[in-house]
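Re: beginner question about structure tokens

> Can someone show what the tokenized structure looks like for a real chain? I only ever see the sequence side.

Sure, here's an example I had lying around. Input first:
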Amino acid sequence: MVDYYDFQGLLRWTLIIAFMLLKAGFIMAVFMHLMWERMALIGTILAPPLALLFLIGFMISEGYYVFDARVDYFGQPEAATRIHVSDVLGTKH
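And the corresponding structure tokens:
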């Protein structure tokens, strides 16, 4: 669908990730029979990946904080410049 409507940039990748997670949720609900299981079993299966995603997001924000603190104290080194998402995706910002 994303290719059919020719979405580009951050919107494209956001939609791809959203559809991927939605599809994974449907697969888990139907084929792993989680739709009919007790909430304790669902929590046991889904809590660790959700905790990992939370911790990964927390570490990303911590990394940005440390980078900014180093720049504040030591200045901006030429080899460690921050890149923007649009630089990676090839869009203009």
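Each token stands for a local structural state, so reading them left to right follows the chain. The first helix runs from residue 10 to 30.
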